[in-house]
Amino acid sequence: MALLQISEPGMTTAPHQHRLAAGIDLGTTNSLIATVRSGSADTLADEKGEHLLPSIIHYAENDIVEVGESAKEKALEDPMNTLASVKRLMGRGTEDLTTLGGHLPYDFADTESSVPRIKTRAGEVSAIEASAEILRVLKARAEKTLGDDLSGVVITVPAYFDDAQREATRDAAKLANLNVYRLINEPTAAAIAYGLDQKAEGVIAVYDLGGGTFDVSILRLSKGVFEVLATGGNSALGGDDFDHAIAQWVLEQAQLENTNDQKLLRRALTTAREAKEALTGQEQVKINLGGWEGELSRTTFNQLIDSLVKKTLMACRRSLRDASLEKDQIINVVMVGGSTRVPYVREKVAEFFEKEPLVNIDPDRVVAIGAAQQADVLAGNKPDDEMLLLDVIPLSLGLEMMGGLVEKVISRNTTIPITRAQEFTTFKDGQTALSIHVLQGERETVESNRSLGKFVLRNIPPMVAGAARIKVIFQVDADGLLSVSAEEATTGTKSQIEIKPSYGLTDVEIEGMLRDSIENAKADMEIRSLREQQVEADRSMEALDAAMKQDESTLLSEEERQRLLAARESLAVVRSTSEHSEEIKAAIKAMEKAADFYVERRMNSSVREAMSGHNVDEF
Ligand code: ADP
Ligand code: MG
Predict the structure, then answer these.
(1) What letters, b where the CB count within 10 A reaches 16 and e where it falls short, cover 497-512?
(2) 199 catalytically annotated
(3) Are residues 204 and 349 in the same domain?
C-alpha cells in the first residue's frame, strides 16, 4: 500500500532529492512547526530557544505585526489590538459570535460580510488573516533554521472542524504562501507520533485537551495503518476554561466580580493561568489581584474544574459507544495538549479508562511531530513508507427522497477518503429534471436533518417513470470536504456541486443531533413507514392514471372505468387522511386488487402489440 509518487510537470523527479516538508500544529493557544531531519522528527525553536509560539497577534504602530511572546506581553497594555484564540473564529459567521462571545473581548466591525472582522489599528482583520500571520512566522522560522524553502506542509486541525473551518485553515495557509499537502486531525497526528515510535498494534484512545479545544479519537493501529474508528469532543472546552473558572473564583474572593475594568479582567485571567500551571508542580499557590491576596489549593482547583473534566469523560464514553467498544479493549490512552499536564486530569482519565495514560512524548509537541512525519511521507521523502491515514466523518450524509425522507448514502463514522455511488430513478413519466438535496444528520426526515446544499440535474430525456438511471456520487476527500455529482446513465447528462457549508456545526449541535436521533428513533421509524406508504400510494395512482390515459377507451367499459375510479378515490382519501402506514398499505392493496383485471387485459394487449413490433408497457 505504498503511496504513489506523481511529480508535477516541470518538477524534478530525482529520486534522492529531499524535499523540505514540515508539520504545523496551528493551535488555539500555541502553535508549533516540526520537521524530519536525519530520520527523526522534532519541533523547531526560535532564536531564543522557544518551541511554542503563542498564537497571539499584536498590531503595533507603523504597520508592525508582532506574533508570539512579544505580542502576548502587549495583551495587558493594548488589548484591543492584540488578538488571541482566533482559531475559535475560523470558519464561523457573524451570527456565531453570540455563542462564542464570552471568550472573545474584541471590537467587532459591523460588516455586511458574514465573516466576523475585528477592528484593530491595522484595520479590520478576519481570523483567517490573523492565522496567516502565525503561519508566516512559523514558515520563516523553518526556512531560516533549515536554510531552504519549504516545499509543503501538513497542518493539523481539531477532529471536529467542519468543512468551513477546514477551508478557512487552507485559506490562511494560502495567504501565508504555504503549499498544503493535507490537513489532518490533531489526535491522528499524535497517534502517528506514538505509532511510529512504538509500533503498537490494537485500539488506542487519544485524549487531547489543549487551551481551547477538547478532542477524543478512538484509533486502531495495525501494520502501520491508522484507522480512526470514532471521534468526539468539544470545540469550546479547554485549559482556557480552567483559567476562567479560577479567575471567577479569584474575583469573587476579592469581591470584584462585578467589575467592568477590561484590564483587570485580563489580569485576572493571566494570574489564573499562572496559578493553574504552578499547581501542576505544587499543592498551593499564592495569588495577588487588585489589592487582594490569598491562596489557592490544588484541592479547591480540582473542585473548580471537576465539571469540566467530567464533560471530557462523557465525550470519551460516547466515542467508545460509537466505535462499539468497551473500555477494556483500549490498549493505550495517549495524552495530548498542555492541559493534560494538570494532575487531576491525568488522574480522572486514568480512573475512567482504568489504565495509566501515556505521557512520554511531550504533550505540547506530539501533534506537530506526527504532522511532520506525515508531511515527510507526502513530500515523497519516504517512498517505501506504508503509512496510510484514515479519518472518519462525524455525521451521516444523505439525500432527500420522495415524501421528505432521507436516504443515507454514507453513514456516520465511515472512514475517509470515501466515494459512494447510489442509483436513483424518476418518479413521474416524462420527468426531465431531478432535484438533488444533500443532507447531514441521523434523523429519518428532511426537516430534522441539516441541509448542506441543493442542485438540479436537468435535461434528463423524457422516459417512463422508473426507467431513468441516475447515479449520484458522494465523494469525501482526505480533508473531509464533500462533493456530490449526479449523472444520467443513458445520456451522460451531468451536474455537480462542492459542498462547503458556510458555517459549520459546533460539536454541541452535533451532540444535540445525535441525541435527538436516539430519542426520536421510534417516532422516526413510524414517520418513515407512513411516508413510504404515502409515496407508494402516489406511485400506484400515478401509474393507474397514466395507463388509463393511454387505453381506457379501448380496453374498458364505462362501468369498469367508474369502478376503477372509485377504487382510486378510496385510496386517495385514505392516503391523505390516515396516519397509519398499515391502513394506507391495505388501501393500496385494495386498489391493486380492483385493478387486477385491467392489468391482465393490458398485458395481453401489450403482448399482442409486442408481437407486432411494439414495446411492452408497464403497469
Ligand atoms: P492548544 O492546542 O489549544 O493550542 P496547548 O496544547 O498548547 O493548546 O495547551 C495550552 C494549554 O495548556 C493552556 O491552557 C495552558 O495554560 C495549559 N498548560 C500548559 N502548561 C501547563 C501546565 N504545566 N499545567 C497546566 N496547564 C498547562
Ligand atoms: Mg493542541
Answers:
(1) bebbbebbbbbeebbe
(2) no
(3) yes
